[in-house]
Write a structure and sequence with these properties.
Cleaves peptide bonds on the C-terminal side of prolyl residues within peptides that are up to approximately 30 amino acids long. Has an absolute requirement for an X-Pro bond in the trans configuration immediately preceding the Pro-Y scissible bond. The chain is of the alpha+beta class and about 700 residues long. The chain has 11 helices and 41 strands. Helix 3 crosses helix 11 and helix 6 packs across helix 7.
Length: about 700
């Protein structure tokens, strides 16, 4: 690689290609056990059940053996390091968050470029000198300790902050004296699915009891809310709420900006409920008063309080959501912002105004209302893309928001509330030419005739000759929208003539709850049909052929890729299922997997079992079929979708399709979680994925 790097520095044009084959590849011999489960009269073998034990020495040896095969393969790709160097270069620019104000201080995060973690800063006023508040890079030798919540008390005296280690969802809380920026002795453990909400001289948080067995795999139940008073030990914390009769509920607290009210939010997804209940209590009271007493199918979220009344965002009798005013004195509801044809993504308040964000054909629209619901104006955005922010304090004179799109790096804007004018506050300088690329949105037809939007990004002048390496990505679940956004790590792929396609398939929130419902539970096959149709569209329009198409998805998207290559192994050349939910019969047995039952159904139910068993990636791998080149990715600290999903899936794929001419690999990261736990790991993973894609397509990689 020394000569290669020298040639790059001299500007020499290099064109590297590689042909890969697994003809000589020897996968680890994974032990099989005689284990059978019976579901509603159907016997289902689970020969790799032992891989669910993440603490066993035997599992650790298997991980080591699989990683050796994978990295031996990747090490043979000559341009792998060149891709990594280019990704590092384009990723190496200062990245800022939008500032948030607390009294006279503005807080924001900044990453100088390649720091493993962003650093938290503050400054007095917008013209003040920034000073470091907390640098997570100093908290672990490998930079995998991450800062989560950072919440400042109303008087600005203290801040509570959460840290997670190695990519885990578990968090620990600490309290900082902001006058000295030193920690108090307070230390709180076993926090998960929690805010950090100040009221008086303490804050509310949610936690689980210390798990029995593996902290990274054991089922999490009995979510509890506590109140921690500054200067005390965790053992002295006040238990505010729990419900042992319903252990699979999420119970969280939030507090109004004036700290006059505390809100209790309860959801029961373990029982398949999509909605939530919500209660409130005034400062000084012990008992909660219901706003919505029972968990049902509708969602309610407190936007703000207006005196003793509450602005509530809800989808009750409004699938695209609306804003209402609830008066607890009369128990009456009044429409403030009625439902629109476009889905309401969220509402924030600042400076006595409401900022409502909508989604129109997967791009953001923002409108400003007064607190009575009178429309005042639309915030004009720089183009078609994604905007977020628009929240703040009641006495704010301006708010910040961030706008981004595929080739538009996240830019922070300042919106002046009085003049309704927008100006650029901070624009990033990224080492690439955005004018060299273009994005278009198309609508393709899925199997049942549904029109599905898709964004396609590529270098200008692209030839539709079927030979462009094309990366198709989708998510398709949990009412989550896949919106336009900039990723510096994507630029090197596009520079090599790559095409990036983002399919907005059903199951997401792109067109409101109807779009979501059309891709959940018994209708999950629509999601796979949409993804398949996206690939077929790209091939039909000659962006690529099957030999130049790669499918990628993570988490629920990993399930998507796994299911699709079982159903259509001939669709693509490369498949990248990342941290996927691959065992659809047992997903609810681990950590908070039971929370996904409203989305997928549950194998304990006979009808759901039949549906899940019909598409579960683990259970539908076909013997002797030629699968695409596949690189499964997971990590040892993923306690959201536990790595056992990917372990068992990889072992089964290698067993049943191991004679395929395409490599079937699993890449298992260490000290990382459901997403890359630091910048270094993210860059390394991305370079490996691109190298794997290009190598298996036989793409000639040009010097960068």
């Amino acid at each position: 690689m020394k000569n290669l790097h020298k040639n790059l520095l001299l500007g020499t044009s290099l064109m590297l290609g590689v042909h890969v084959s697994n003809a000589q590849m020897q996968y680890p011999q994974t032990k099989k056990i005689d284990h059978i489960d019976e579901y509603h009269g159907v016997k289902v073998a689970d020969p790799y059940r032992w891989l669910e034990d993440d603490r066993s020495a035997e599992t650790a040896e298997w991980v080591k053996a699989e990683n050796k095969v994978t990295f031996d393969f990747l090490d043979k790709i000559p341009y792998r390091n060149m891709l990594k160097e280019r990704i590092e270069k384009v990723f190496n620019y200062p990245k800022y968050s939008a500032p948030s104000r607390k009294n006279e201080w503005f807080y924001f995060s900044k990453n100088d470029g390649l720091q493993n973690q962003s650093v938290l800063y503050r400054q007095k006023g917008l013209d003040g000198t920034p000073e470091i508040v907390l640098d997570p890079n100093k908290l672990s030798p490998d930079g995998t300790t991450r800062l989560g919540a950072f919440s400042v008390s109303k008087d600005g005296k203290y801040a509570v902050y959460y840290l997670s280690k190695g990519g885990s969802d578990w968090q620990e809380a600490y309290i900082m004296d902001l006058s000295t920026k030193q920690n108090l002795p307070d230390h709180i453990e076993w926090i998960k699915v929690s805010g950090a909400e100040w009221q008086g001289n303490g804050f509310y948080y949610s936690r689980y009891p210390k798990p029995d067995g593996s902290a990274l795999a054991a089922k999490n139940e009995n979510h509890q809310i506590y109140y921690h008073k500054v200067g005390t030990s965790q053992e002295q914390d006040e238990l505010v709420y729990e419900n042992k009769e319903n252990p699979q509920r999420f119970n969280t607290m939030s507090v109004s900006d004036d700290e006059k009210f505390a809100y209790l939010n309860i959801s029961d997804r373990g029982k398949g409920k999509e909605g939530n209940a919500i209660y409130f209590r005034k400062l000084g009271q012990k008992e909660f008063t219901p706003i919505v007493a029972e968990v049902g199918d509708f969602q309610y979220s407190i936007v703000d309080n207006i005196g003793d009344k509450f602005l509530v965002e809800t989808n009750e009798k409004a699938q695209n959501s609306k804003v209402q005013l609830y008066d607890p004195a009369t128990k009456s509801w009044k429409n403030i912002i009625p439902e629109k044809p476009e889905p309401l993504q969220g509402v924030g308040t600042a400076g006595g105004k409401m900022f409502a964000t909508y989604l129109k054909d997967v791009t953001t629209r923002v409108y400003v209302y007064d607190l009575t619901g009178k429309l005042e104006n639309e915030v004009k955005l720089p183009g078609l893309g994604t905007a977020g922010g628009f929240g703040g304090e009641a006495d704010d004179k301006f708010v910040f928001y961030t706008f981004t799109s595929f080739t538009f790096p996240p830019t922070i804007y300042r919106y002046d509330i009085a003049t309704k004018q927008t100006s650029i506050f901070r624009k990033p300088e990224v080492q690439f030419n955005p004018d060299a690329f273009e994005t278009k949105q198309i609508f393709y037809t899925s199997k049942d005739g549904t029109k599905v939007p898709m964004f396609i990004t590529y270098k200008k002048g692209l030839q539709l000759n079927g030979k462009n390496p094309t990366l198709l990505y989708a998510y398709g679940g949990f009412n989550i929208s896949s919106q336009p956004g900039f990723s510096a790590t994507l630029i090197p792929f596009l520079e090599q003539g790559g095409v990036y396609a983002l399919a907005n398939i059903r199951g997401g929130a792109e067109y409101g709850e109807k779009w979501h419902e059309a891709g959940m539970k018994l209708k999950k096959q629509n999601v796979y049909d949409d993804f398949i149709a996206a690939g077929e569209y790209l091939i039909a329009q000659k962006y690529c052929t099957k030999d130049f198409l790669a499918l990628r998805g993570g988490s629920n998207g990993g399930l998507l890729v796994g299911a699709v290559i079982n159903q259509r192994p001939d669709l693509c050349k490369v498949a990248i299922p990342q941290v996927g939910v691959m065992d659809m019969l047992r997903y609810h047995k681990f950590t908070i997997g039971w929370n996904w039952s409203p989305e997928y159904g549950n194998s304990d139910d006979a009808t759901d079992f039949k549906n899940l068993y019909g598409y579960s990636p683990l259970h539908n791998i076909k013997e002797g079929v030629e699968y695409p080149a596949t690189m499964i990715t997971t990590a040892d600290h993923d306690d959201r979708v536990v790595p056992a999903h990917s372990f068992k899936y990889a072992a089964t794929l290698q067993e049943k399709a191991g004679k395929s001419k395409n490599p079937l690999l699993i890449r298992i990261d260490v000290n990382s979680g459901h997403g890359a736990s630091n910048t270094k790991k993210n860059i390394e993973l991305t370079a490996d994925l691109y190298a794997f894609i290009f190598a298996n397509m036989g793409v000639v990689v040009k010097g960068m």
